[in-house]
UniProtKB/TrEMBL annotation:
Domain NADP-dependent oxidoreductase: start-end pairs: 23-257
Similarity-based family: Belongs to the aldo/keto reductase family.
Binding site for substrate: 109
Site annotation Lowers pKa of active site Tyr: residues: 76
Molecular functions (GO terms): oxidoreductase activity, acting on the CH-OH group of donors, NAD or NADP as acceptor
Protein name: Aldo/keto reductase
Lineage top rank: taxon: Bacteria
Residues annotated as the enzyme's active site: 51
Organism of provenance: Spirosoma sordidisoli
SUPFAM superfamilies attached to this UniProt entry: NAD(P)-linked oxidoreductase
Keyword vocabulary terms for this entry: NADP, Oxidoreductase
C-alpha cells in the first residue's frame, strides 16, 4: 500500500494518512501497534511528550528496520514545558527518547500557555538549526493563529485539530488553507461514539465499507492529514484501507451536515 503525501509550505512531503498513538490505557501496546502500522504501509507516526510513549515508538522504528527517510515522525511540546528555554530542553528529551537525530515535525500541543509565543520562538530556532524539518501547532483556531502569525518569522507548516464530520468547522479549514497551513485531523473516529449513527451507517452500507473507513475517507477527501488511532492489528489495517473508493460530492456534502460539536478533547474556542 502506497499512501499519498501532501507538500507542506516549506517543501517537505508529509503522508496524508498515519497512525495516532494517544493511548493512555494501552501504552504497553503502542510498540506493537506502530510495528503493525509500519508493516501495513503506514509511514506517519504521531506521538507527543504528554502521551508518555515516545520510547515505545522508537523501539518500533528500530524493530521495523525501515530507512529513516521513509518514516515521518511527529511529537509535541506539552503545556508544562512551554517557554523558550524550557521548550528547547523538552525537545532534547523527546529526541533522546525517540532516538532520532532530526525530527520531522514538532508541534505546540495546545495554545493554553501564556508562554506560547516564546515557545514558538524556540521552535523557530530548532527549525533554523536543522534539528526539525517542519514546525507547527496543535489545537489552534483563528484567534490563536492570528496572534502567532502576527509575531512569527516562520508560518506554521501544520495545524493539528480535532476533525470529524461531527466537529467540522469549515472556516478553520478555509483559514488554514488561506495561510498555506496544512490542516491535520485527530480523533477522526470520534473514539467510536458515532459508529452506530444511523445516517453514517446508511452511507457505510451504500459504499460497502465500515463506518470507521467512511470517517477516515471523508477527512482524506477534504485534503486533511488524518491519524486514526488503534492498537488492534485488524483495525489499523482497516483504517488505512481507504484509498480504493471515493465518496461522491453529494455524500461528502451530506456528511458535512453531521456537525453537532461532538468532541473528545477541549474545544479550542474555550481557550483565551
Amino acid at each position: 500500500m502506497t499512501i499519498p503525501s501532501v507538500t507542506l509550505n516549506n517543501g517537505v512531503d508529509m503522508p496524508l494518512l498515519g497512525l495516532g498513538v494517544y493511548a493512555p490505557q494501552h501504552n504497553s501496546e503502542v510498540q506493537q501497534a506502530v510495528e503493525w502500522a509500519l508493516e501495513a504501509g503506514c509511514r506517519l507516526i504521531d506521538t507527543a511528550s504528554a502521551y508518555g510513549n515516545e520510547r515505545e515508538v522508537a523501539d518500533a522504528l528500530r524493530a521495523a528496520s525501515l530507512p529513516r527517510s521513509e518514516v515521518f515522525i511527529t511529537t509535541k511540546v506539552w503545556d508544562d514545558d512551554q517557554g523558550y528555554d524550557a521548550t528547547l530542553r523538552a525537545f532534547d528529551r523527546s529526541l533522546e527518547k525517540l532516538q532520532l537525530d532530526v525530527l520531522d515535525l514538532y508541534l505546540i500541543h495546545w495554545p493554553s500557555s501564556p508562554h506560547r509565543l516564546d515557545t514558538w520562538r524556540a521552535l523557530e530556532k530548532l527549525y533554523a538549526d536543522g534539528r526539525v524539518r517542519a514546525i507547527g501547532v496543535s489545537n489552534y483556531y483563528q484567534p490563536h493563529l492570528d496572534e502567532l502569525i502576527g509575531q512569527a518569522t516562520v508560518v506554521p507548516a501544520v495545524n493539528q485539530v480535532e476533525f470529524s464530520p461531527y466537529c467540522y468547522l469549515p472556516d478553520v479549514l478555509a483559514y488554514c488553507r488561506s495561510k498555506t497551513i496544512q490542516l491535520q485531523g485527530y480523533a477522526p473516529l470520534v473514539r467510536g461514539e458515532k459508529r452506530n449513527d444511523p445516517p453514517l451507517l446508511a452511507l457505510a452500507e451504500k459504499y460497502n465499507k465500515s463506518t470507521y473507513q467512511l470517517l477516515v475517507r471523508w477527512s482524506v477527501q477534504h485534503g486533511v492529514v488524518t491519524i486514526p488511532k488503534s492498537v488492534k492489528r485488524d483495525r489499523i489495517r482497516e483504517n488505512l484501507d481507504v484509498l480504493d473508493f471515493t465518496i461522491s460530492d453529494e455524500d461528502m456534502a451530506l456528511m458535512n451536515t453531521f456537525y453537532d460539536n461532538t468532541r473528545v478533547a477541549t474545544d479550542p474556542r474555550e481557550i483565551p
